[in-house]
Specification:
Elements: H1 21-48, H2 51-57, H3 59-67, H4 80-107, H5 109-128, H6 133-161, H7 167-192, H8 200-206, H9 209-221, H10 226-231, H11 235-246, H12 252-267, H13 271-275, H14 281-296, H15 299-312, H16 317-345, H17 347-373, H18 384-403, H19 405-416, H20 419-451, H21 454-473, H22 486-490
Helix pairs in contact: 1-6, 1-7, 1-9, 1-15, 2-3, 4-5, 4-6, 4-20, 5-6, 5-8, 5-9, 6-7, 7-8, 7-16, 7-19, 14-19, 14-20, 15-16, 16-17, 16-18, 17-18, 17-21, 18-19
Bound molecules: beta-D-glucopyranose (BGC).
């Protein structure tokens, strides 16, 4: 794995280059990879609450929901096949990550994106035309394989293409396209659920073909990154491309550093074993904990199951889907706030403010649901104002996530790994994210059934733990060039004991000899 477009060398170098129209357009097309991920996150929750869909594939859930007025509302949707439908995708994505990382390295980012798009198309078609549960599950596995490929290659592609000064904003651009995908999916669910005859879910699921085709066609017209060309020995071609991307002729410094970085990374024979060295302890800790904590905020409970949750607290089908649209809008808006603020206010401020806001809103939601539903889950008739208050607190929670753990959960790991462990550490981050997404998706409905309103306290507990962790252990990384990043560990009260520096106090991280 090569250097991901980072500044290597003495740390004082600034590569010339502009934010050209060419690179902007290229990055917009590539970011569509986030769209397919988001579309998928947003579509499943709405589809699983559509009556016609439930009747056809999960009749027991449908019966339980319609006829059973007696049992607890908390347990209405607790069905293993229904959960498997949502979560199978993440398991598949986890598995394909490993293959995707090989394809991306050996054959370039473009081919990985293309494969991702094609697999996603196939999955969307199988789902749209499904007549049996196995078709749904196989379709979702294909979607998952597709996402494994695009999530591996797209962020890498963006980082390599972007001029280094804009890498932070472009990185969050990927998250922005995830949130747009989620929003579009909820809006479509809202309209498709109204189609007479009840076949709208086919359009919702089959609609994933559109973002899939965009990334498929996009990957065919996108140029490969100079880094990837260098990695495969095409130096002349890489230089020409770099000039075009940067919009300047003087690309010698950057070219030399990219070649040196690529050669250095080829020297590392055992990136995984490397990662276990003592001096990488802070990096490994962050690679494992940040994505795990991101999922333990409980965000995907809202993203996957918002309509189910809103039905549980007494909304009609329509209002439940509409509320999912509202949370989707808040998600997109707050991500924009993060793009604006991340380099102004810093990562720690956003993490801590977001954590506190999430904690308060989760406790409020737990209290509101607990007050009305109690432990038996039979609230009687719920007033409208009540449901509105709950939705409001959920929006406050989503906004907090969307300007903190959402984008930073991807950004911070990607900016702290030194070159020689970047590839391995990044795979750890992506895998941890998928594992925890899978676990939460798989057990949420069961947890709602058993823990009831306490479920929100469960996630609030983790939010408190992760906020303390950030406060104590995460140094600020804003405005620190990647190759200088080890300084932040060196001057940290705890991590300084693991990392070592030279006699000038400078640490040779990501430096190529
Ligand atoms: C997370 C997803 C989540 C999404 C919500 C992403 O950063 O990785 O799991 O669904 O944000 O916007």
């Amino acid at each position: 794995m090569p250097a991901v477009g980072i500044v290597i060398g003495d740390g004082n170098r600034e590569y010339p280059g502009k934010l050209t129209l060419y690179v902007t357009m290229t990055c917009i097309v590539a970011a569509m990879g986030g769209l397919i991920f988001g579309y998928d996150i947003g579509i499943s929750g709405g589809v699983t609450t559509m009556d016609s869909f439930q009747k056809e594939f999960f009749p027991s859930v449908y019966e339980k929901q319609k006829n059973d007025q007696e049992s607890s509302k908390y347990c209405k949707f607790d069905s293993i096949p229904l959960t498997l439908f949502t979560s199978s995708l993440y398991l598949a994505a986890l598995c394909s990550c490993v293959v995707a990382s090989y394809v991306t390295r050996e054959f370039g980012r473009k081919l990985s994106m293309l494969l991702g798009g094609v697999l996603f198309c196939a999955g969307a078609l199988l789902n749209g035309f499904a007549t049996a549960v196995w078709m749904l599950i196989v379709g979702r596995l294909l979607l998952g394989f597709g996402i494994g490929f695009t999530n591996q290659s797209v962020p890498l592609y963006l980082s390599e293409m972007a001029p280094y000064k804009y890498r932070g904003a472009l990185n969050i651009g990927f998250q922005l396209s995830i949130t747009i995908g989620i929003l579009v999916a909820s809006v479509l669910n809202f309209f498709f659920s109204k189609i007479p005859g009840g076949w709208g879910w086919r359009l919702s699921l089959g609609g994933a073909v559109v973002p899939a085709l965009i990334i498929t066609v996009g990957s065919l017209i996108l140029p490969d990154t100079p880094n990837s060309m260098i990695e495969r020995g095409r130096f002349k071609q890489a230089e020409t491309k770099l000039r075009k991307i940067r919009g300047v002729d003087d690309v010698e410094d950057e070219m030399n550093d990219l070649i040196a970085a690529s050669e250095a990374s080829k020297l590392v024979e055992h990136p995984w074993r490397n990662l276990l060295q003592r001096k990488y302890r802070p990096h490994l800790t962050m690679a494992i904990l940040i994505p795990s904590f991101q999922q333990l905020t409980g965000i995907n409970v809202i993203m996957f199951y918002a309509p189910v949750l809103f039905q549980t607290i007494g909304f009609e089908n329509d209002a439940a889907l509409m509320s999912a649209v509202v949370t989707g809008l808040v998600n997109v808006g707050a991500t924009v706030v993060s793009i604006y603020g991340v380099d102004k206010w810093g990562r720690r401020f956003l993490f801590l403010e977001g954590g506190l806001q999430m904690l308060i809103s989760q406790v409020a939601v737990a209290a509101a649901i607990g007050a009305k539903f109690g432990v038996d889950g039979n609230p009687g008739v719920l007033p409208k104002w009540y449901a509105i208050v709950v939705v409001l607190f959920i929006c406050i929670y989503v906004a907090a996530f969307a300007w903190s753990w959402g984008p930073l959960g991807w950004l911070v790991p990607s900016e702290i790994f030194p070159l020689e462990i970047r590839s391995a550490a990044q795979s750890v981050t992506v895998s941890m994210n998928m594992i925890f997404t899978f676990i939460i998706a798989q057990v949420f409905l069961m947890m709602l059934c058993h823990m009831k309103f306490g479920l929100f306290i469960f996630f609030a507990f983790f939010v408190a733990v992760m906020s303390v962790f950030i406060y104590v252990f995460l140094p600020e990384t804003r405005g620190v060039p990647i190759e200088e990043m080890n300084q932040v560990w060196r001057s940290h009260w705890y991590w300084s004991r693991f990392v070592d520096g030279d006699e000038n106090g400078r640490v040779e991280m990501g430096k190529v000899h």
